[in-house]
Automatic annotation (TrEMBL):
Residues 140-149, 172-182 have a biased composition (Polar residues). Residues 8-124 form the HSR domain. This is Nuclear body protein SP140-like protein. GO terms for molecular function: DNA binding; DNA-binding transcription factor activity, RNA polymerase II-specific; zinc ion binding. Residues 289-335 form the PHD-type domain. CDD domains: PHD_SP110_140 (cd15626). Residues 129-194 are annotated as: Disordered. GO terms for cellular component: cytoplasm; nucleolus. Residues 193-274 form the SAND domain.
Length: 448
């Protein structure tokens, strides 16, 4: 009988340990998932964050290179990091937190300390305990299980905390997390989350059971713009998100949609959220929100993550990298790279080899021309097909990096303008001189 009792004790002890371990793991995972925005906001530069994840094989070499390319294309580092964390969420494991809160990262990104403390605080206060998820006091307590299985009462808390400690030891090499005695008090799940950074560009929002991420820039464009991305990846307006959360009868998204436990109305009043423009009638709908910025047509569009303009794949110059999730348009890349430039003679600029900087500037100039095509640059008549085809040839050659020098590109464009009014050619030359910082000369210089 003693042997049977011992076996029963061992089985019950192991079963309880497994439950505690699983609940602790799930709680830590949920804490990580809910704080991806805060973690992203804490990362101000790619190195050493991306390199550390790549070296420890949490992300593939391709994912690392894609993230670096996005940074070089001037996609905000916080959005790059959020995308990486979203991918890591799919294969989450505790060693990831060890890499995230490594000594190097904590030194390079001081804002991580507050997030780290939120994990530490959750453990020491019992937020990650079994009682945080179970609200059924009728179930046998740990002490009751102990008396049945033969585990001494004094060993009960020690065993429980030791398993939590073993699991959390993998999070930080220095074992800085301290485990306090788990509390059995109920904690309201409706408590406000003080860890939400309301200044962040992307905010976690909820409505009933619906969860999503609110993009402030999209909200600025009006309530009819799909500004919330759901957990499933679908884009929704505020009203659609409200309905999705089971509040279709409310029709008051400012109160029903919440962030960090607070209604969006509070965030707007406190200045954390922009007040979206009022929509008086359907005719007042924001223009071009679902149209290509170049041709003004609808269809399969790709959104720039910096300015939120949308483009068809082939309308943009160079063509949109459709496989890249985080992508910036040529206008934004030029805007971010432009600054004080040393002036040069026009002849010097024309003689330049077509390097990456010159390529970007030529792409920018040609894209501006294409944006004018649908308005007034070329009349929409059959005889203009030759001119439009000429522009397409220039675009094709530029996309293929077929211009050895700036001069050849400018010469081809000059030929396109020969059959049109001088004002458009003058506009191009003005843009050309501004983009390449050409100094005015006393002598007349030609683009050809």
């Amino acid at each position: 009988m003693a042997g049977a009792g011992s076996d029963f004790s061992a089985r019950m002890s192991t079963e309880y340990e497994n439950i505690e371990e699983r609940l602790l793991y799930e709680a830590i995972f949920r804490h990580f998932r809910r704080h991806k925005v805060e973690i992203s906001s804490a990362i101000k530069k790619p190195f050493p964050f991306l390199e550390g994840l790549c070296d420890r094989e949490f992300i593939t070499k391709k994912m690392y290179e894609d993230a670096q390319d996005s940074c070089r294309n001037l996609v905000p580092i916080q959005r790059v990091v959020y995308h990486v964390l979203s991918e890591l969420e799919k294969t989450f494991d505790l060693p990831l937190l060890e890499a995230l809160f490594s000594e190097v990262n904590m030194q390079e990104y001081p804002d991580l300390h507050g997030i780290y403390k939120s994990f530490e605080k959750g453990i020491s206060s019992g937020d990650f305990s079994k009682s945080s998820f179970k609200e059924e006091p009728q179930e046998p307590s740990v002490s009751e299980l102990s008396s049945v299985s033969g585990v001494p009462r004094g060993q009960e808390a020690k065993t429980k905390n030791s398993h939590a400690s073993d699991m959390m030891d993998t999070v930080n090499p220095g074992n800085n997390f301290t485990l306090g005695k788990s509390t059995r008090q109920r904690r309201s799940r409706m408590d406000r989350n003080e860890n939400v950074n309301f200044h962040s560009e992307i905010l976690p929002v909820t409505c009933g059971q619906a969860k999503g991420m609110l993009y402030k820039r999209k909200l600025k464009r009006g309530t009819l713009v799909k500004c919330i991305q759901s957990e499933g990846g679908d884009w929704m307006t505020l009203r659609e998100f409200e309905v999705n959360g089971g509040h279709e009868k409310s029709s008051n998204w400012k109160l029903s949609v919440r962030c960090g436990g607070r209604p969006l109305r509070w965030l707007i009043e406190e200045g954390f959220l922009p007040k979206p423009p009022r929509i008086y009638t359907k005719k007042k709908k924001l223009e071009n929100t679902d149209k290509c910025a170049v041709c003004l047509d609808e269809g399969r569009l790709f959104c720039c993550y910096s300015c939120l303009k949308t483009f068809h794949e082939d309308c943009h110059i160079p063509p949109v990298e459709t496989q890249r999730i985080l992508w910036s348009c040529t206008f934004c890349r030029m805007s971010m790279s432009s600054g004080s430039q040393q002036c040069h003679r026009e002849s010097e600029v024309l003689a330049r080899q077509m390097g990456p900087e010159e390529q970007l500037k030529c792409e920018f100039l040609l894209l501006k021309i294409y944006c004018c095509v649908e308005s007034s640059l070329f009349a929409k008549t059959p005889q203009n097909n030759d001119e439009l085809m000429g522009l397409d040839k220039i675009k094709k050659q530029l996309n293929e990096q077929g211009y050895p020098q700036v001069k050849e590109f400018v010469q081809d464009l000059h030929l396109i303008f020969q059959n049109h009014t001088a004002s458009y050619e003058a506009e191009f030359e003005k843009n050309f001189k501004e983009v390449f910082a050409i100094q005015e000369a006393n002598e007349n210089s030609s683009l050809v």
